[in-house]
C-alpha cells in the first residue's frame, strides 16, 4: 500500500480521478489532516510495478495541470521581465507546445526539455521519490526534488523566447513582402514552380527559367528591404516576376520555402502534387 499526501484538495482530486480513470481495480481511502492536507491510501490487486507506473503518470498529470503553467508565468515575468498579459499568455502557449509536441527535429532547434523529452525527466523525479518512500508527500517532491528541473525550465523559457522572437521576425518579414507585392505590377500571368533543394521555375508554356535569366530579372529588385541576398534564388525570382497566379508542384507541404511562398502569396498560389506537373521536368539549370 502507498500513501500519497497533497496539501491542496483540488490537486488530490485530480490525482484520484486520473487513477480511477486508469483502473477501477485501484482502491482509494482518504484521510484528512489539518496540518498535512489529504492523505490517500492506495491499494491495487495487480503487481506493484504497474501501480508505481500509474502513480508516476498521476503525479505528472497533477503537475502539468496545477503547477506547470504557474511556474511558466512566474519565470516569464520574474526572470525575463515580460509583463504584457496577452504576450505572456502567447509565450506560455508556445512553451506548452514545445514541451509536448514531438515536432520534426530539423524544424526546431532542440532543448533538453523540448518536444516531449521533459516527460522522461519528470518520470525520473517521481519514480525516485516513490522508490525511496512508502509515504510520499507531493509538495515535498516539488519543493525538495525539483530544483534542477526548475532551473532547466528557466533555461527552456529562454529558448522558447528565442523561438517567439524568430516567429515575430518571420511574420514581420512575410507582412513586408505581402505589402510590397500588393503594390508591385504583375510581370506575368502564370508561374509554375517545382519543389527541390532549390525551386525550378517555368513559364506557362513549360519553358524553364535558367539561372542567368533569373539573376538578370532580380538585379533591379530592392532585396535589401527584406534582408535577402542577391544569391537567394527561391523567393527573389517570384518577387521579380510578380505573377498573377502561381502553381507550386511538390510532395512536401511542410518544406519551409514552400510555407513561406504560401504565406506571402496566399490566394495567388496553389499547391499541387508533383505528379500533376503538366510538362517534362528538367533536373538541372
TrEMBL record:
Cited Pfam families: YtxC
InterPro entries: Spore_YtxC (IPR014199)
Protein's recorded name: Sporulation protein YtxC
Biological classification of the source: Bacteria, Bacillati, Bacillota, Bacilli, Bacillales
Amino acid at each position: 500500500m502507498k500513501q500519497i499526501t497533497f496539501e491542496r484538495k483540488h490537486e488530490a482530486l485530480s490525482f484520484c480521478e486520473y487513477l480511477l480513470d486508469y483502473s477501477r481495480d485501484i482502491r482509494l481511502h482518504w484521510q484528512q489532516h489539518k496540518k498535512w492536507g489529504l492523505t490517500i491510501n492506495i491499494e491495487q490487486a495487480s503487481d506493484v510495478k504497474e501501480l508505481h507506473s500509474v502513480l508516476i503518470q498521476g503525479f505528472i498529470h497533477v503537475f502539468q495541470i496545477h503547477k506547470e503553467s504557474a511556474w511558466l508565468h512566474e519565470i516569464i515575468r520574474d526572470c525575463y521581465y515580460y509583463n504584457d498579459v496577452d504576450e505572456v499568455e502567447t509565450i506560455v502557449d508556445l512553451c506548452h507546445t514545445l514541451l509536448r509536441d514531438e515536432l520534426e527535429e530539423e524544424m526546431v532547434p532542440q532543448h533538453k526539455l523540448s518536444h516531449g523529452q521533459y516527460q522522461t525527466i519528470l518520470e525520473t523525479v517521481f519514480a525516485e521519490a516513490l522508490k525511496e518512500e512508502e509515504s510520499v508527500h507531493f509538495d515535498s517532491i516539488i519543493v525538495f526534488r525539483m530544483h534542477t528541473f526548475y532551473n532547466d525550465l528557466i533555461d527552456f523559457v529562454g529558448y522558447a523566447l528565442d523561438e517567439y522572437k524568430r516567429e515575430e521576425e518571420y511574420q514581420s518579414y512575410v507582412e513586408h513582402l505581402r505589402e510590397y507585392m500588393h503594390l508591385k505590377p504583375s510581370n506575368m500571368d502564370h508561374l509554375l514552380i517545382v519543389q527541390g533543394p532549390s525551386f525550378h521555375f517555368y513559364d506557362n508554356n513549360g519553358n524553364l527559367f535558367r539561372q542567368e535569366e533569373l539573376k538578370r530579372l532580380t538585379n533591379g529588385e530592392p532585396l535589401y528591404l527584406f534582408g535577402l541576398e542577391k544569391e537567394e534564388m527561391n523567393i527573389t525570382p517570384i518577387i521579380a516576376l510578380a505573377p498573377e497566379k502561381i502553381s507550386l508542384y511538390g510532395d512536401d507541404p511542410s518544406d519551409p520555402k514552400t510555407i513561406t511562398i504560401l504565406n506571402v502569396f496566399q490566394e495567388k498560389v496553389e499547391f499541387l502534387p508533383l505528379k500533376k506537373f503538366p510538362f517534362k521536368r528538367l533536373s538541372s539549370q
